[in-house]
Amino acid sequence: SYTALAGAPAMSEGKEGKGDDIGDSIEFQSISFRDGSDVCELQAALSFESTCSTSRALSDAFWEVKYLVDSVRKRFIIVLGGTKPTTFDGDCSLQFSVPLVDVSSVKPGHLTNAGLLVCTLKAGDEEVADVKMVVQVTKDEATGGFVRQIYNPLE
Question: Which residues, in sequence order, are CB contacts of 92 under 8 Å at separation 6+?
């Protein structure tokens, strides 16, 4: 099932887990990038935070953050990190920061495709919901490097 978000319908995707009592939905109130980490050099530090609410209390809950790059023949999944398990009782938040987005395992020719920054909320082994943010990567002709622009689904 999908939960409509303010200004961006169908960007949060509920996951079906074991049993039918899940019925989860997650609604994001805010997503904000710190220190310009949404528009910058591709491998630069990434730092953002968000606030959200869940339809039920979640124990042993944590976030996993991944960067997905698709090419014609292969999908590259780069796990950027996650948060420590905690309990969310309706309100939840995500504060995430990494000093480097390491794309060294991806050939430069694949990097200029659109990718996804995926934040997955898990409770134990169960995937509760995802929020997916489009990452557009372009080549900076002046430097020869790559620049990322992450689109906030709430804007």
Answer: 26, 51, 52, 53, 54, 58, 61, 121
User: Are the C-beta atoms of residues 78 and 66 closer than 8 Å to each other?
Assistant: yes
Tens of pLDDT along the chain (155 residues)?
224 232 233 334 444 433 333 446 788 899 999 999 999 999 999 999 999 988 888 999 999 999 999 888 889 999 999 999 999 988 888 999 999 999 999 998 899 888 999 999 999 988 888 899 999 999 999 999 999 999 999 88
Other C-beta atoms closer than 10 Å to the C-beta of 134 total 14
Ranges of H-type helices in the chain: 108-111
Residue given tokens 């906030």 in the structure block: 152
- Supply 69's token pair: 């790059």
Element (H, E) at 78: strand 75-82
